[in-house]
């Protein structure tokens, strides 16, 4: 290696989130011990905690800053096998918790579509799962955690102790300080199995009806085909599940073996391949109804068995979009979004639709709210993807919905501030030494414009 | 002498707060395993202890001391033996990388590296080898390094301390293998730990967990010397084979 190349390597390397867009230079500093934060010797100007980097856009990135890598804070602190209360350091992953807890007859209270996220990341984005309609968000099951500020202040937070910091940190996107440890209230299980029930549907109406009927199911979610047109428009499979009440052996899971070792050329994922995939997926379930007893792994984490599946999208990466629209004409909004996708010629590979319930989130900035939520992904294509996402954000604004920062790489300051009007209050809790590229993008500008735009219609106009 | 692998239940870990030791201890935490953990920092020791207890270890006793203080070793080791009932496995995992520039400028800095990485393990192994020879069982596992295979200008004090350790362990093995004691020299390559956090991390870096699995496998298969991950055996074979006349001019 030549000297110049070596020197180049020494400058800050670029980091990317799960979406692989954007790529931003930063310095990575692993945290090995809770008590070693904040570092006594060298104060850092601008920093951000990062867990497994399973967010999609730039909530877990900080351009030219210091990323405090927390996955090395991975110790358990205590577990009460009678109550299922686990206390652990914030870098412990949900995968580690499952490996530990399932054999003892306990399960996560809420889980996202991948188990490779940290407890700290799950709190900071106040993540939701397929049981949102009954269990609410992850933060609801975190009775206590410690928050450490860059000035060294250590705050034990619970709904009654430092409750304002508790609320600001749950869903606080890593901006309020470092979460060092947390308690997670697990829920009991007697089996690894999930009693699964899949139902095919066509149309958003049919989906909502099925959701209504599945209110008592612990888990429910639907996959929706956003490519098919005509009489197949908005077809999908509604999936519901419950932990099996039949006791059986609770053996631990194995680690994934398959990994996608290279970036696939991004042309492989286009409208036609996605169309074919969706058609196949829809037909995979033969009859209209399917009942089965399945292991929890494929039910919750269908993609985790392939590590680095994000490479499927090529090295340009992918853009995620997730919104929630309130029930009131939310259905219309979903239809508009689906139509906007078809007319753009783009196709979303993994489109997921679910109804959020009214269990309140403890976080000041939490994303979930009662309504219909739709999650989509698109390959990064300079010409069309960004235009489409702008269009989808616009529809979200018009339907009084909001977008999910954990899955965003492009919402504007104006959009963010209209989705989360409480952001100003939240800003008081942001640690002066903490920031993220997301936060810089959405909080820096637009305050004056926002004041001028008094109605949502005005906002909409300002956006176009 | 060949003895089949028996899962250890009385485990002594010296340098218990090192990343490799922590990852390794976790693999052994079961309802019948008892730990005696030694390291300098009591708060860190307590974190490791509660982690192992939560993961199911039967008991964990912690002992905070600076392992550079070799005169204190016999008392600490007797305490460990008494506490564990029987030591089945002793893992020596403490060490420092040191700063080569300082060590080549000042003998005091060089001596500090040699004390921690060589003299301290020699003192521990002296006691432990006699203990194991007496009980005619057990595993004495010591973390050395691939750096001990050949001296390089960038870290030869560290390398010399580990190289000396390797030779010492060769001799101890030659002495007590016949008593049915496994003497395992572990030679990790680059591992992502606080010791190497300042280095740019390349594809040769392994996680402490991967290294811990490698150590466990080496114990189960009763190995004498284990490169972890295994590919380092091939790399070091080549490095050792380069004639000194050429090696001395290389920038490694
Ligand atoms: C396949 C897949 C499926 C997903 N499904 C869902 C889903 O169903 N529901 C859902 O809600 N999300 C989902 N997500 C998103 C994911 O759950 C969240 O982005 C989660 O927060 C990622 O956790 P992480 O440990 O990777 O954190 P990162 O992405 O590294 O960081 C997330 C945020 O947490 C902060 N943070 C991390 N650690 C700490 C700490 N110790 N203290 C303070 N702040 C911290 C970071 O600063 C950042 O703002 C999915 C993601 C993937 C890849």
TrEMBL record, chain A:
MF terms in GO: FAD binding; oxidoreductase activity, acting on the CH-OH group of donors, oxygen as acceptor
Domain of life: Bacteria
A Pfam match: FAD_binding_4
Cited SUPFAM superfamilies: FAD-binding/transporter-associated domain-like
FAD-binding PCMH-type domain residues: 10-189
Protein name as catalogued: L-fuco-beta-pyranose dehydrogenase
Species assigned in the record: Acidisarcina polymorpha
UniProtKB/TrEMBL annotation, chain B:
Keywords, ordered alphabetically: Oxidoreductase
InterPro entries per UniProt: NAD(P)-bd_dom_sf (IPR036291), Sc_DH/Rdtase_CS (IPR020904), SDR_fam (IPR002347)
GO cellular component, one term: membrane
GO molecular function: oxidoreductase activity
A Pfam family this chain is assigned to: adh_short
Keyword Oxidoreductase attached: yes
Gene3D superfamilies recorded: NAD(P)-binding Rossmann-like Domain
SUPFAM superfamilies: NAD(P)-binding Rossmann-fold domains
PROSITE patterns registered for this protein in UniProt: ADH_SHORT
PANTHER family for this protein: DEHYDROGENASE/REDUCTASE SDR FAMILY MEMBER 7B, DEHYDROGENASE_REDUCTASE SDR FAMILY MEMBER 7B
NCBIfam families per UniProt: PRK07102.1
Family to which this protein belongs: Belongs to the short-chain dehydrogenases/reductases (SDR) family.
Name of the featured protein: Sorbitol-6-phosphate 2-dehydrogenase
Organism of this sequence: Acidisarcina polymorpha
